[in-house]
Amino acid sequence: MSCPNLAAGGIACGSTPEGAAEVMRACRAVTDRPLFVKMAPVRVPEIARALEDAGADGLTLINSISGMSIDVNTRQSKLSKPTGGLSGPLCHPIAVRMVWEAARVVNIPICGVGGIMSGEDAAEFILAGATCVSVGMANLVDPAASIRILDELTAWAESQGVADINELVGALEW
User: Fold this and answer.
1) Digit-coded pLDDT (tens) for 11-65
2) 3 is known as an active-site residue
3) Cβ(48)–Cβ(106) below 8 Å
4) Choice between 84 and 148, residue whose per-residue pLDDT is larger
5) Would the CA dihedral through 73, 78, 80, 82 be positive or negative?
6) Catalytic residue among 3, 91, 111, 132
7) Are strands 83-86 and 110-113 parallel, antiparallel or unpaired?
8) What's the CA gap between 116 and 118, in Å, rounded?
9) CA distance 36 to 29
């Protein structure tokens, strides 16, 4: 849902509730397998609800955020195109917020994605409402990052005095 639809001017095909639901219904019609939908970082509550209503089994939030980087000496993009997706620690606080927004309006599992470099980063997603997380960029920096992050997350959960980490899903207090 978060990939650009070139026929529609490059916007994500899931950038509207109607468009996301249409794609979800088409996918649901051809399989009874579980479908987790990776969402674009736009209109999260509305689109999350539309995807759940159209048959999504879970959501993954978020895909990269569009950004731009210019080489000031050559006046050219540092990327292969003028704009590109930003990910990693830069988008972490935004992704955590979007997981929290989605978790408040849906009853399906959510996978938190974006800038998880430590167990505490993973814990933020869980407290915001994610039922699982996915580690990406950290693995590029350190091939053993996922194991380290899991160990840190386990230690954190133990420090919270819970027997089951699911007790902490959506446990943000505000």
Assistant:
1) 566 789 999 999 999 999 999 999 999 998 999 999 999 999 999 999 999 988 8
2) yes
3) yes
4) 148
5) negative
6) 3
7) unpaired
8) 6
9) 15
Q: Give the pair of three-digit tokens for residue 123.
A: 């814990």
- Where residue 172 falls (left for φ over 0; alpha for ψ -120 to 50; beta otherwise) is beta
CA dist list (Å): 133 to 6, 68, 174? 29, 27, 22
**DSSP structural state of residue 168:** G
The full DSSP string for 87-146 is -GGGGHHHHHHHHHHHHTT--S-EEEES---SHHHHHHHHHHT-SEEE--HHHHH-TTHH
Sorted by where each starts, the structural domains of the chain and their CATH numbers stand as 4-163 (3.20.20.70)
Tokens of 54: 């159209």
